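Researcher: Structure prediction, please.
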Amino acid sequence: MSRGRLSPAGRVVLLLAMPALLPLAAACGRPVDGVPAARSESSSTSAEELGKLIVMEVPSGLPRMPDEDLTPPAGRKRVEDIAGYARDPARERAVLADYGYRYGWERFWGTESGPVTGVFVDRFDTRAGAGAYAEDLARNDAEHYGGMLSETPAGLPGGCWVLTVADPDLRQLHGPAAFAWCVHGVFSVSASAVTDSVDAAEEEVHAVLTAQLELLPPR
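Model: Predicted structure follows.
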């Protein structure tokens, strides 16, 4: 069973017209041990350096939304920021510690009531932690939103998942959506798109995720 954690899409309530929180799952997740990543550029990236590696534009050409204009603000994310989105922040901090979460960064493009694209990159202590986190998010969001979840989809590297939601509950998503998660060394990399068709959303997510993976340090 997944540990559960806030969906990346749910981190910006203003944009996607969804509940502020996804419920935490029962504490019966698998342990995340794994072997720490070898010392490399990938393992030495700081939060500030990570921010410089996030894509600056998306294939759809949507305008970037200023970090400070969003609720909660986008940009750098600390453990306490992510934990603060949960109903039980102390429990969420323990969940994040189990994954080996260190810090993250998020960025958004679009308009409040129109198409929206988001990118989320999170750094962990180990590859195992990043992989468990990405997989748990994918399965949690598939359960929450419905839709179709695909593992290792065509056009993306191994260790990726894509969720498409063609007929969304408009109380959660304001249009057809696609979400994707990939593991890149000690990073969990994800993207989301809400637009006027599931095909367009999936195309956007594939393209922006591919561009983001190319900007990160080697595995």
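Model: The radius of gyration is 16 Å.
Researcher: Thanks, that helps.
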